[in-house]
Automatic annotation (TrEMBL):
This is 3-methyl-2-oxobutanoate hydroxymethyltransferase. One of its GO terms (molecular function) is magnesium ion binding. PANTHER family: 3-METHYL-2-OXOBUTANOATE HYDROXYMETHYLTRANSFERASE. It catalyses: (6R)-5,10-methylene-5,6,7,8-tetrahydrofolate + 3-methyl-2-oxobutanoate + H2O = 2-dehydropantoate + (6S)-5,6,7,8-tetrahydrofolate. It holds the Pfam family Pantoate_transf. The keyword Isomerase does not apply. Its EC number is 2.1.2.11. It comes from Dispira parvispora.
């Protein structure tokens, strides 16, 4: 009885195989990627066909400063993993930031303060592998640079060398100017971060707009001037009134990157998950959502679950691989018949 059942299976599979192309008749591109765990080769010298646009030059600090002088707005986006970095890079983003925001939007922590240096390095490595042309910038984590310049240098060089980053971003103003100076003198490019500094959320009373009074705005200006003097090649200005950011930008000789700081900074940065509509725990007022991928992803997952449960996926004709020949199939079924009890 078992043998008869196998024979029926042979006939069924053989008739099905008549409807399916064999590997030799399929285009070679179909088998360019056999497994989802093996990502396709990114565009580059070894795979020029993967990129449909003109090859752009590597973005450097000199590139950023050139665009600043020419008044060409600078773009920055966050990325925390290989595929996100790769897509942001292919979209010709100027700067890719491995922000400590990954603590909340990628790792599920309640605040950025919980992120460690080792975790930051882990994500920097992934982003670096996916980033070919964009400038690679990473946040220094809470507590990794505030104790002393020596501590900052030790952790900073770890992130730069182990994480393959090109520059670091530090939050703070006049109080970290000496540390910034020491790091830039040691050869680590530094971008400052003033206004709302999320690593100080407890001291600031939460995520609140900064510089709403003239005196507080002056403090932010002094922070910016101190960081410029210390050697920063640029400064992020977060969550301050637009007139404050505009004035500070006009008084500096280095580019400013705004986030919730109005349209008059030298460039803009957004958290990738926020602008893509993936992270829905909290969307800041200043963030424009260019997509709503979270709902699309949930819908795709639900459709997959439904099709698996209803035996729709995988389709026998479309999503499966044949044996090399009918002869091999018949031989295999004969072998399997011996194991039937």
């Amino acid at each position: 009885m078992a043998t008869a059942a196998l024979v029926r299976r042979v006939n069924l599979l053989s008739s099905t195989r008549q409807k399916v192309k064999t590997p030799s008749t399929l285009p070679s591109t179909v088998f360019a990627r056999l497994y989802s765990v093996h990502p396709g080769e990114p565009p580059g010298p070894s795979n020029p066909s993967a990129s449909q646009h003109t090859e752009r030059k590597k973005v450097t600090i000199q590139t950023i400063h050139s665009r600043y002088r020419k008044k060409i707005p600078i773009t920055m986006l966050t990325a925390y993993d290989y595929p996100t970095a790769q897509t942001a890079d292919r979209a010709e983003t100027d700067i890719i930031l491995v922000g400590d925001s990954l603590a909340m939007v990628a790792l599920g922590y309640s605040s950025t303060a919980k992120l460690t240096v080792d975790e930051m390095i882990h994500h920097c490595k992934a982003v670096s592998r996916g980033c070919d042309k964009a400038f690679k910038l990473a946040d220094m984590t809470t507590g990794s640079y505030q104790i002393s310049p020596e501590q900052a240098l030790t952790n900073g060089f770890r992130i730069i060398t182990e994480g393959s980053m090109e520059a670091l971003k530090l939050e703070g103003g006049e109080e970290i100017a000496e540390t910034v100076h020491r790091m830039t003198q040691a050869g680590i490019p530094i971008m400052g971060h003033i206004g709302l500094t999320p690593q100080h959320e407890n001291a600031l009373g939460g995520f609140r707009v900064q510089g709403k009074s003239a005196k507080k705005a002056e403090k932010i200006l002094k922070d910016a001037l101190a960081l410029q003097e210390a050697g920063c090649f640029g400064i992020v200005i977060e969550c301050v009134p637009s007139p404050v950011a505009e004035t500070i930008t006009s008084l500096l000789r280095i580019p400013t990157i705004g986030i919730g700081a109005g349209p008059h900074t030298s460039g803009q940065v957004l958290v990738g998950q926020d602008m893509l509509g993936i992270f829905d725990r909290f969307v800041p007022k200043f963030c424009k959502q260019y997509a709503h991928l979270g709902n699309n992803i949930i819908g795709a997952y639900r459709e997959y679950n439904r099709e698996v449960r209803e035996s729709i996926f995988p389709d026998a004709n479309q999503h499966t691989y044949p044996m090399s020949s009918e002869k091999e199939l018949e031989e295999w079924l004969s072998i399997a018949a011996k194991y039937q009890k």
